[in-house]
């Protein structure tokens, strides 16, 4: 299978001189978490911006989103893969770089799609996506976890859903407690 077989071709771009406030609103209004950042010429890829970038590089630094240009905080080290490359190459790049999205380029180096970990999971071939997901998510893993193939899931019934909606327990991370931890 090739990257072009699973990539999303509906590319969403923002100019590098757009404010991060504008970009955050675009992401909110269109339910996007990843945008390509263009340079002076439309289609000229100069970086990518994620909702996480906005949170970590604007909000946590107490910067005014109206004053910060997306080009100033965009990730410029864009990980790309060719549209004709085998999907195993893309999976390996995701694991090596611990990135959940790759920009897919044509033979001329122009972006033609985006391949996400979710795309690979949906197009899973014999469980290989789990290996890629583990590699990508390794940076977020802390401590020992139950291997994914040992987790037993059971289908829920409407009664189960109703009972669960009335429980006071809240799932936080990997633990269950009866309170919610509020961060200052």
Q: Can you describe what's shown?
A:
With 184 residues, this protein is an alpha/beta fold. The protein folds into two domains: 3-140, CBS-domain (Roll), CATH 3.10.580; 148-177, no CATH class. Helix content is 34%, strand content 18%. It contains eight helices and eight strands. The chain has helices spanning 3-6, 20-30, 51-59, 70-73, 87-97, 117-122, 128-137, 158-165; strands at residues 13-15, 34-38, 45-50, 80-82, 101-105, 111-116, 170-172, 175-177. The strands form three sheets. It has a three-stranded mixed sheet. A three-stranded mixed sheet has the order 4-5-6. The chain has a two-stranded antiparallel sheet with strand order 7-8. α5 packs parallel to α7. It is globular. The N and C termini lie far apart (47 Å). Mean pLDDT is 82; it is low at 169-184.
């Amino acid at each position: 299978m090739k990257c072009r077989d699973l990539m999303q071709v509906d590319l969403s771009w923002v100019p590098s001189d757009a404010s991060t406030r504008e970009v955050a609103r675009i992401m909110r209004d269109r339910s996007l978490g990843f945008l390509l950042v263009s340079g002076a010429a439309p289609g000229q890829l100069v970086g990518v911006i994620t909702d996480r970038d906005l949170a970590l590089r604007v909000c946590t630094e107490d910067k005014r989103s109206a004053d910060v240009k997306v080009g100033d905080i965009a990730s410029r080290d864009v990980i790309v893969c060719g549209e004709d490359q085998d999907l195993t190459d893309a999976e390996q790049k995701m694991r090596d770089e611990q990135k959940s999205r790759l920009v897919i380029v044509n033979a001329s180096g122009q972006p033609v799609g985006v391949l996400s970990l979710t795309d690979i999971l949906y197009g899973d071939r014999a469980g290989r996506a789990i290996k890629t997901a583990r590699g990508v998510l390794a940076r977020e893993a802390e401590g020992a976890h139950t291997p994914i193939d040992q987790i037993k899931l059971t289908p829920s019934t409407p009664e189960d859903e109703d009972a669960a909606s009335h429980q006071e327990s809240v799932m936080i991370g990997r633990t269950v407690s009866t309170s919610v931890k509020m961060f200052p």
